[in-house]
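Q: What structure does this chain adopt?
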Amino acid sequence: MPKVDFCFTCWPGGPAIPPPCLRCGSRRGYFAAGLCTRCHPYATPPVESCRDCYAWGVSRLHNWLCHGCNTWRAKHPVVGDCPTCDRPVALGAEGVCRLCRKQATLVRTGRNKLDVIAANRHGQQLFLANMFSDGSRFRPKPPTVESGQPLRPPVQHQQLLLFPMQRDLSAYGRAAMPAPPDPDLADELDRRTRTYAATRRWSKKHTDEARWGVRILLGLQDTPGAPIKATEVLQLRAAGLRTWTVLEVLAAAGLLIDNRPPAIDTWFHTQIDGLPQPMTTELLTWYDVMRHGRPTSPRRRPRS
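A:
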């Protein structure tokens, strides 16, 4: 308490019985300044039961309510006495509280009508807080049979360029991009893109952007049917498209060459940028030995 040098446990002639909490009236867990651990802003109260459904595992963060009861109160703001348990709580459309309705759905068999009073006549089954789910988050993803299998063997030839140029995809719209020269390959890869997106539960926007990105890359290929480099996929950012979806689809189809520099190489060159040339040369030699190892003496295994 303010201006008091002793707690109630160390009170001279004590221990003394702490006073009730000034906010909630509780006589348990006294903390300081006349408040208990549940009400004091600087206390760390333990988890307790939900105020409405008694589910164990709620905290003060959500006002001592579980996620289900928070949503229940938002959807059903009417508070009254539940005819089954006689508690003043938020009542749903059937005129009963959430705990009584959960008990009725627990004991109901088949599609029979809910009998809330009969279901709660012999007691209620309590549960842990925030554990109700349809199980979709824990359901294993369906196997991707086509993952890692190429559409067809990539072509072995390569069309060389006289003047390699960087394309500016921001200057044209998606519809103005050239059509793929191999329609059969484009249709098959589009079908695989939709199948891959469905197995990964992508949204419609992500699926459409992946299909557009694959179609644009196939239309811009200098060698139709050849694998696509990851640096070419990154050009899609100028057209306002996501690249990670296209990279996943091409990798699953076996048509991706990941030629991006490792992030650690970019980070290291950023760190040594601006150092004198002798220091830069020695650090590059040290980095090459540490990253790729050294087969001759003094030998060193490459770092992971």
